[in-house]
Amino acid sequence: MIYQKELDQILNAVESFGEAVFGLADMVHWHNDALDYFVEQEILKSTKPATEAECDGCGEGCVEKVVFADGNQPGNSRAYIACKVHEDMGLIAVDMKMLKRWKANKDRLKELGYPTGYEVLWDPDNVLYISLKDAANMASSDLLTLRRLSRLLEDPGFPVHRMHKGRRCKVHTPEFRKWLEYTQFGISDAAIDKYLEGTKVRLEEEEKKKVPPRD
């Protein structure tokens, strides 16, 4: 891919923080057409503008909160910073273009086969990953069967990195061992059902927040 460096930056941000939001300042070293490409491919999508910006009213470079004023026509919103250092400066206009931000579309990245969250690209030669069968055997407990481990991995937020290829799955050995150390092994089917139901409720609440309120 022409924009592999930029894509790696997006994927690394998703992997490290769970979400990845970029402003123009984050793209100063990107190729000129990279942003347009990622938007066209739906890898990046427009999100809420930044609420803070560096003030250019003087040379001190203060980062301040932005105040938005809606114009009387769609798209006529304006942004200002009220200087707290030099009161005589009044309101300093902020270029709305500099406040634009784009968010990584994790669903689209997953469709394209890129890693998101705890999923990583399939690499059979990575010695840090073991099969689910080996992971279940490592647990040395009748409570953590292969079936139960598979069900836990249905949760995208399960805190162990894993790679998938069709029905095959491998988990990150050091992270899985750490999870074993901290879990109390109350891993019954009922407990897993409760865990996954909690995840379902959380995801539903997140989806509700995305729906704009009706007038």
How much strand content do the residues show? 15-25%
Number of helices: 7
- Given helix and strand content, the structural type is alpha+beta
**Would you report the number of β strands?**
12
Morphology call: elongated
Secondary-structure element string:
HEHEEEEEEEHEEHHEEHH
Q: Give the overall average pLDDT.
A: 80
- Our measurement of the CA-to-CA distance between the termini, rounded to an integer number of angstroms, reads 44 Å
Task: Give the strand line-up of the largest sheet.
Answer: 9-11-12-10
**Poorly predicted spans:** none
Question: How many strands, what sense, and barrel or not for the largest sheet?
Answer: 4 strands, mixed
Number of domains: 3
Q: Can you walk me through this structure?
A:
The chain is an alpha+beta fold and 215 residues long. The chain has three domains: 1-49 and 100-117, no CATH class; 51-99, no CATH class; 118-210, no CATH class. Helix content is 34%, strand content 20%. The chain has helices at 4-17, 34-40, 106-111, 132-139, 146-152, 173-182, 189-210; strands spanning 21-23, 44-47, 52-54, 63-65, 67-69, 78-82, 91-94, 101-104, 119-120, 129-131, 162-165, 168-172. It has a four-stranded mixed sheet with strand order 9-11-12-10. Strand 5 and strand 6 form a beta hairpin. It is elongated. The mean pLDDT is 80.
